[in-house]
Amino acid sequence: MVFGQVVIGPPGSGKTTYCNGMSQFLSLIGRKVAVVNLDPANDALPYECAVNIEELIKLEDVMSQHSLGPNGGLMYCMEYLEKNIDWLESKLKPLSKDHYFLFDFPGQVELFFNHDSTKKFLTKLIKSLNLRLTAVQLIDCHLCSDPGNYVSSLLLSLSTMLHMELPHVNVLSKIDLIGSYGKLAFTLDFYTDVQDLSYLQHHLNQDPRSAKYRKLTSELCSVVEDYGLVNFTTLDIQDKESVGNLVKLIDKANGYIFSGIDASVVEYSKIAVGQADWDYNRVAAVQEKYMKDEETID
Ligand SMILES: Nc1nc2c(ncn2[C@@H]2O[C@H](COP(=O)(O)OP(=O)(O)O)[C@@H](O)[C@H]2O)c(=O)[nH]1
Ligand SMILES: [Mg+2]
């Protein structure tokens, strides 16, 4: 069995930085990591990548040959990769014996909530390489500072989870910067736990720009609440403890934690019922650390 992470999220949410930090952390705890760059729009890579999509196709060539913009070019590249998935498979096969994979994906979110190529080629790789993947969706915590943007992030996370059908962890990234975006309307656990969005709607209604979308916002929030699937953990990629906590969640989601134990039902269940780490105390500690001087309104 081979384990790995599919790192996704809007442009600038921190995916490439994450792959770099995560590969360093995992190497430190003794895992052999292979980072696979599948984003042809990534400039200078901070990590050494085992496989780079640039060896297969270059975004600039696609854009000039097919008269496409950057967005259309990236969609083309992913469709091209799907058609040439044997290329990626042959590159990953030799590594799959003893490596843990980190896939650095493009930031075009439509690739993950309504486009089929990514899902299709990942499904193919999962089968052929016996992969166990967790999707890690990074959302810049800056989006919490605007209720409308936060609702969009919830919808994005939900639709990606439903479309990709992979074990999934949503992450508010760059949490070290949360204190610099001004006073948040609620405490951090409100944003991570996604428990009662009626408060958010009330807050949105105060803003004349969003008041006219009251009914729409309310319906969208109900969709998110009714599914009850979305919540977030937080990440500061520079902080070992923060990365370590996230690794625990990811390991639980893709089953890595079970890989080293004997096939005993008792042992499995002991781990399976272990506490999830996005409990109140942890979020409160993160709030304390990064939002020290903030007063919050309940
Ligand atoms: N403060 C802070 N900055 C971060 C963090 N993660 C990424 N960044 C910065 O966010 C910017 C975009 O990161 P990048 O990894 O290129 O995003 P990508 O487009 O999703 O691959 C870069 O300037 C990073 O240095 C973080 O945890 N904290
Ligand atoms: Mg990137």
SSE diagram, text form:
Elements: E1 2-8, H1 15-28, E2 33-37, E3 51-52, H2 59-66, H3 70-83, H4 85-95, E4 100-104, H5 110-113, H6 117-129, E5 131-140, H7 147-164, E6 168-173, H8 188-193, H9 198-206, H10 208-211, H11 214-227, E7 232-234, H12 240-254, H13 256-259, H14 265-272, H15 280-290
Parallel strand pairs: 1-4, 1-5, 2-3, 2-4, 5-6, 6-7
This protein binds guanosine-5'-diphosphate and magnesium ion.
The site of guanosine-5'-diphosphate has 15 residues, from helix 1.
Structural notes for this entry:
The chain is of the alpha/beta class. It has one domain: P-loop containing nucleotide triphosphate hydrolases (Rossmann fold, 3-Layer(aba) Sandwich), CATH 3.40.50. Helix content is 51%, strand content 13%. The chain has 15 helices and 7 strands. It has helices spanning 15-28, 59-66, 70-83, 85-95, 110-113, 117-129, 147-164, 188-193, 198-206, 208-211, 214-227, 240-254, 256-259, 265-272, 280-290; strands spanning 2-8, 33-37, 51-52, 100-104, 131-140, 168-173, 232-234. The protein has a 7-stranded parallel β-sheet with strand order 3-2-4-1-5-6-7, sandwiched between helices. Strand 5 (131-140), helix 7 and strand 6 form a beta-alpha-beta unit. Helix 3 (70-83) packs parallel to helix 6 (117-129), helix 7 (147-164) packs across helix 11 (214-227) and helix 9 (198-206) runs antiparallel to helix 11. It is globular and about 55 Å long. The N and C termini lie far apart (47 Å). 37% of the residues are buried. The mean pLDDT is 90.
